[in-house]
Write a sequence for this structure.
């Protein structure tokens, strides 16, 4: 079946909504950036301090939460610029890290003071969803303590 351009034009004259919808669809499709890289840090991670103390990181689109037994969960705003991670806190202090993605299961943060390797952590509950409900958050904290006990004994 051959579609003639003249026929397509005549249809759009009689149906201006079709023409507008078509033009809008083309504009939206053309403005999409398909080369945009997904943030490799999104998700849940764990690492160890130099003294082998276990802790976890939870990363969403705009926030990194460090969950450490001694300081609790603490959130930091962040941005990514290429392979640089810029982390800031409420006191307007910034720290810039170089991100090296080892594979989909690990990544390393490096700056002039230290280098930290993180491994992916599959969690039954999402931290960011659990903080919306006190019972769910209590269960999340209990599960963190269980992971903390297991991982510190294993190290």
């Amino acid at each position: 079946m051959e579609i003639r351009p003249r026929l397509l034009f005549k249809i759009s004259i009689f149906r201006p909504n079709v023409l507008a919808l078509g033009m809008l669809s083309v504009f939206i499709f053309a403005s999409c950036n398909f080369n945009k890289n997904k943030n490799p840090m999104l998700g849940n991670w764990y690492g160890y301090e130099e003294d082998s103390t276990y802790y976890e990181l939870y990363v969403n689109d705009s926030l990194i939460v460090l969950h450490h037994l001694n300081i609790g969960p603490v959130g930091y705003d962040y941005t990514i610029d290429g392979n640089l991670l810029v982390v800031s806190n409420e006191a307007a202090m910034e720290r810039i890290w170089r991100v090296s993605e080892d594979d989909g299961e690990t990544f390393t943060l490096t700056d002039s003071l230290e280098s930290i390797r993180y491994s992916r952590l599959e969690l039954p509950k999402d931290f960011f969803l659990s903080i919306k409900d006190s019972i769910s958050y209590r269960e999340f904290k209990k599960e963190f303590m269980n992971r903390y006990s297991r991982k510190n004994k294993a190290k």
Summary: Confidence is low (pLDDT under 50) at residues 3-14, 17-36. Residues 134-154 form the longest helix (21 residues). The chain has two domains: 1-36, 43-154. Residues 43-154 form a domain with the Lipocalin fold (CATH 2.40.128).
